[in-house]
Amino acid sequence: MLGRQETLAELGRRALAGAPPDELLHETAAAVARDLGADHVAILERTGDGRGLLARAGWGLPVGVLGGVLPPEPERLAHDLGSGSSLTADIGASGQAFGVLEAHAREERRFGAEDEAFLQAVAGLLGAALGRARHDDLVSDSEARFRELADTTPALMWMTDAEGDVTFVNEGWIHFTGGGASFGASAHPDDRERLLDTWRETSRERLEFRCEYRLRHAPSGGYRWVLELGTPRYAAGEFVGYVGTATDIHERRTMEEALRESEAGFRELADTAPAMIWTTDEAGLVTFVNEGWMRFTGTTLEEELGESWSLGVHPEDAPLTLSTWQEALAERRPWEREYRLHHHAGEYRWIADRGVPRYVGGRFVGYVGTAIDIHERKTMEGRLLEVYRQEHTIAETLQRSLLPERLPPIEGVEMAARYLPGARGAAIGGDWYDVLERPDGRVALVVGDVAGHGLRAAASMGQLRNAFRAYGMVEASPAEVVARINRLVMSGVEQVMATVLYLVLDRETGEVTFSAAGHPPPLVIGPGGPRFLEGGRSVPIGAADPAVFREETAVIEPGSALLLYTDGLVERRDAPLDERLEQLAAAVGPADEDLSGLCERVLGSVLGEGELSDDVAILAVRPLTVAAGRISLTLPAEPGSLARLRRRLARFLHGTGASDTEHYELTLTICEAAGNAIEHAYGPGDASYEVEVTFDGDEVVATVRDFGTWRAKRGEHRGRGLRIIEELMDEVSVERHDGGTSVTMRRRVGAERAA
Amino acid sequence: MSSPAEIIVERHDDRLVARLSGEVDMSNATYVREQLLASMPNEASGLVLDIAGCRYLDSAAIEVLFDLSRRLARRRQELRIAMPPDSPLRRVLELTEVRAAAPVYDSLEAALQ
C-alpha cells in the first residue's frame, strides 16, 4: 500500500515539477505495471476526432502497439493481448476526457478493488497533470506556492483545474485514501451523490465549496468524516480552478452523531418523564421542551422555542428570573430559580427551575434544564409563615397581657417596671416580673427568666407567674415558695427551666427575705449608696429534683429602693458578670430618684446602644416611709373596700407589735364600724367613708367617719357588730353631726399580754 | 378587691366535713352560706365546719353560723364547729355566743367523735 502511495506522491510531484508529458506517461505506465504486477499497461489518448485511441505510452506492450491507433471499443486491447484480467480507468474525470489507462494480466482475477482504486487514482493524477500542462504558464506561480504549502501541511490537499478535474492531491491525501485521486471516487457510497451534487452546484457558480462527508480511510480500512473546503483560484483575473483541503473531523462528527442519538434518546426519555425538561443552544435559546413542559403550559413546541418561554413567567418574577438566567448563561454557570409560570389552567403556579451547562467534547453546547411544580410546597410555606406570624402575635399578646405596663397599685410602695424584648427578630422571651400583697401584710416581689423564646416560653412564663402568685400567697418562706414551684415544674410533662429571684419585703421594717434560684442578686439603692444583697443562692428552677433552696434575710434602710432584674440586663458574652454588676451599680442615681427615672437610667447606661441579645425585665420597688403611727384613708362605701382596709390595717398593726389576737380584734372592730358606715349610711350612688388610725406607742385610736345617718341596731348581726365593738374596745364614742356620724374607738395594745 | 375564702368539702361516714379558710366578711358571707347548704346531702346526719384555716370572720360571718345551724336543724342535721383553742378568733366567737348555735370542738378529730 505504502508503495502505491509513494508512487502516487512521486507522480504528483513529477507532474507538479513540470515533467514533460510523454516522460510522465511512460514513468506512470512502468510504475502501474510494477505496483499492480500487471503484464501490460497502456495509456491511450483519445484522438482529436474522438474516433480512435492513440497508444501514447505503455509498459510490456507488444511491438507495434505503441504509437498505433485502436478503435474506441471497450476491451479491444484486452482482446488483442489475450488478457485473463483487465482494469481500466478514464483519464480526466469530467468534460474533456484525455483517454484511458489500462492494465492487463494474463492471469485471471488478478486485480482486486484496491487495485482498481489505485488505477483510478493514477488516472486522476494523470488527467490533472495533463490538464495542468495546458495552463502551465498561467498558473505556475500560484502552483509553486500551493506546492510549498502542501508539503508543509499535514492536511489533505487537492487542486482542480478550471474544468473541475483534480490536478493535484498531496501526500497526506494519498496516504489517507490509499490513492483515490478524485474525492468522488473515495467518498462513502451513501455520501457520494450528495458530495458530487454540492460540488457541481458550487463549482458552476465558482463559490466556496464546503461539504462534510465520509472519505475512505485506507489505514483503517474504513471511512472517516472529513470537512472538505474548496476555494476558487484565479490567475491574472482568470478562474483556474479550486484549491481545497480536507480536514479529518471524524471525532467531532461521531461525537455529534452520538449526541444526536443520545439526544433522541434523551428526548424520548424526557417526554415520558413527569418532570418538565428543556434544552437550549449555546446562545440560551430554547431548542427543546418536553411534553411535561407543554402539558404544564398548554403551549406547543414551536411556541416554546427561542426566547418565548419568558412570556409565561409571572410579571413580578420575570425581571429577576431573566436577569439571573442571563448572568448564569454569560458565565456558563448552573442556574436555579423558583418562579411562577403561567399554567394552562389560567393561573400561575410556582416551579423550581434548574439548568446546567452541557459540554460535548469540551465544547459548550447550551443548557439542559428541569423544572418541577412546587406550588403546593410554596403555598404551604406561605401558610407556615402565616402560622409563624400568628404565633408571634399570640406570644406577644400573651407577654403583654402577662406583663402589664402598669403594676396594680399596692398600698405603701412605689413601683416601676420595664420589659424590653430581645432584638432577635420578634422573639418574645420568657422574662417576667410580678408584685403581690401577702395576707400577712408583706409584699412579695418576683423577677424571673424562663429559658427559651417564643410562644412556649411565654406560656411557661405565664404558668410560673401564676404559680408564684399562688404559693406566694400561702407560703411565708421564700425558699419554701421556690422549692414548691420547683417540685411543681419537675412533676410536669414539659421541661421548663427558669431563674428566679423571689423576695418578700416588710414595708414597715424594711426587712427583706429572698431566695435567688440561679439568678443574679438584687440591688439595694440606699442613702449610703448601692449594694447587692448577697446570699440565698441556689440552682435554677427545673434544674434538679430534689434541690436545696436557700433564703437570706437583710434589712434595707428607710428610703432605700430595691432593683430586681433579669439576666438580660447584665449578661454579655464579652464581659464577665462581676464587671457587668459593677457597671450596673455605677449606673444608678441617688436613693430618692423617681423609680421610672431609675429604670430608664439603668436601661440606658447598662444596655447602651447595642442590640439586645436577650430580653430584659426590671422591677424597682421602694417602700414609702410611713408617717409614724398614723393611717388616714378615704375608701369607697362598698363591701369590697373592707379587704383593702384590712390590708392597710395589717401593715399598720404589724408596726405596733400587736399580738395575733389583738391584731384580729382591732381589725374586726374597725371593719365592723366601717361595715356599718357602708351598710346603713347611704342610699344608692357613689359615696365614701374615712378611716383614721393612730398609735402613740401604747394606745390605738381609730375613727371611722361617714356622711350619713348611722342607724344603730338594725338586724341581728348588726347588733352583734355593735356588741363586738363595744366589748372589744376599751372605749367607744359616737358623734353625730350635720354631715354624718363619727365612731371613735380606743384600745391599749399589749394589754392582753399584760393581763 | 373581694375577700378570698375557700371551702373544701369531703364526706366522712354519714357526715360532711367542710374546711373553711381565708377571710369571710360581709362581702362574701352569703355566698359561703349558700355553698355550704348546697353541699349538704339530705341523707347526711350533720356538718362539721372546720374553721382552723380562717384568718378573719366578721359579724356577718358569725351570723352565717347561726343561720346555718337553724336551717340544718330544720332538716334534722347537726352543725358542729372545730377551732383550735389558741385561735385569735376564739374570744370573738365566745363573745358572740356561737356555742348557742353549735358546739365548738378544739379539733376536727374531736368534732368527729
Summarize the structure.
Chain A is an alpha+beta fold and 755 residues long.
Counted beta strands of chain A: 31
Tally of contiguous helical segments of chain B: 4
In percent, how helical is the residue content of chain B?
A: 25-40%
Structural class of chain A: alpha+beta
Inertia-based shape of chain A: rod-shaped
Radius of gyration of chain B: 13 Å
Task: Please mark out the parts of chain A with pLDDT under 50 across 5 or more consecutive residues, or reply none.
Answer: none
Write up what this structure looks like.
The complex is a heterodimer of chains A (755) and B (113). In chain A, strand 13 (335-342) and strand 14 (348-360) form a beta hairpin. Chain A is 39% helix and 29% strand. In chain A, helix 2 (21-36) packs antiparallel against helix 4, helix 13 (375-402) packs parallel to helix 14 (454-474) and helix 20 (660-680) packs across helix 21. The relative contact order of chain A is 0.05. Chain A is rod-shaped. In chain A, the strands form six sheets. In chain A, strands 17, 18, 19, 20, 23 and 24 form a six-stranded mixed β-sheet that branches. In chain A, strands 3-2-1-5-4 form a five-stranded antiparallel β-sheet. Chain A has a five-stranded antiparallel β-sheet with strand order 7-6-10-9-8, with helices on both faces. By secondary structure, chain A is of the alpha+beta class. Chain A starts with a helix and ends with a helix. Chain A contains 22 helices and 31 strands. Chain B is of the alpha/beta class and 113 residues long. Chain B contains four helices and five strands, in the order ββαβαβαβα. Chain B has helices spanning 29-39, 59-74, 90-95, 108-112, and strands spanning 5-12, 15-24, 46-57, 78-82, 104-105. In chain B, strands 1-2-3-4-5 form a five-stranded mixed β-sheet. In chain B, helix 2 links the parallel strand 3 (46-57) and strand 4 (78-82). In chain B, helix 1 runs parallel beside helix 2. Chain B is globular, with a radius of gyration of 13 Å. The model of chain B has no long low-confidence stretch (mean pLDDT 91). Classes of the chains: A alpha+beta (755), B alpha/beta (113). Chain A binds chain B through residues 439, 639-644, 646, 659-661, 663-665, 667-668, 671-672, 675, 678-679, 716-718, 720-721, 723-724, 727-728, and chain B through 1-4, 23, 25-27, 55-56, 58-60, 62-63, 66, 88-92, 95-96.
